[in-house]
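Data card: per-record layout.
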Amino acid sequence: MKKVFIVLALSLGLAASAQREGQSPQERYISRYAGIAVNEMYRSGVPASITLAQGIIESSSGASKLAAEGNNHFGIKCHNSWNGRTMRADDDRRNECFRVYDSAEESFRDHSDFLRYRDRYKFLFDFQTVDYKSWAYGLKQAGYATDPSYAAKLIKCVEDYGLSRYDRMTLEQVLAEAGQEAERPAEAVALEEIPDSPLKIEAGGLYTGSAGEEYRFSLSRTLYSRNGVPFVFAVEGESYASLAKRYHLLEREILKYNDVSKGAELHAGDVVYLEPKKTKAAAGLDKFIVGEDPESFHAICQRFAVREKSVRKLNGLPSNYEPREGDELLLRPESKLRKLWKKR
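The structure for this 344-residue chain is written out next.
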């Protein structure tokens, strides 16, 4: 009986090996990295189809020098914020600086963060996760690549290999489909539903956008919510004092909620929170990378509905700190799993 089991196992192994040998380099790449791409989709909001298509194109399905020697699957250059290892390669110019990673998974994570936390890509997250065509054109519009046909190549790759199916799958479904082919992420996120549309109507007149913002309509005022904190947009002629009175708050309360001092000016369009901001940003918004036109520290904290004091403490910043291009600001404490993952 033992011999039968051995022969059967050997046969199955040879069959799987033959199947792998019949795959194209692109198919092998997809089988290996689909799990990581889907995990990143749930963590960051970047569609798995786009991640895989970019990886295939940018790394020549993992065979490029950058991928083979530097685990860099997305051609991400050093930029001012990179403090890790580097390598040189020719791209738009000769001998350019590129990031080097300890693993392919680290490259995938940095790719997601690169899109998620840089201002020039933030409009992409207004698109539906399943709308890979808008993401492809948006990446080209934002200047991810200089190739004029970059968007068309991404779309063709997604459609040629059926990558859009991964935008609707869970990590466990992907791993079950790929079997032992897939790399399981070292830090798998909790799977949450990603909306199929950028605007979901809930019970009670509550609307939820793709970026997690919620808002209610009433006959008198539109009330929004960011990171679970309600806010309004100021209109011409309003002040913190007038809004405090309108919403039955003390003036000192509304000033504290918005990290401003008495006498602070309020302009039309400014966000005004009506409850205390949170000590950390919403899940998936781990950090913020300051862009070419730096915002004030106050404006960044208002954007993510986090308290200035908490962000300063988390990053060890002095009270007079103001952001500069390339600065990385943590918006959430790193998890224990994340810290262990970084030390690997």
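Known properties of this structure: The mean pLDDT is 80. Residues 22-181 form a domain with the Lysozyme fold (CATH 1.10.530.10).

See the next section for split statistics.
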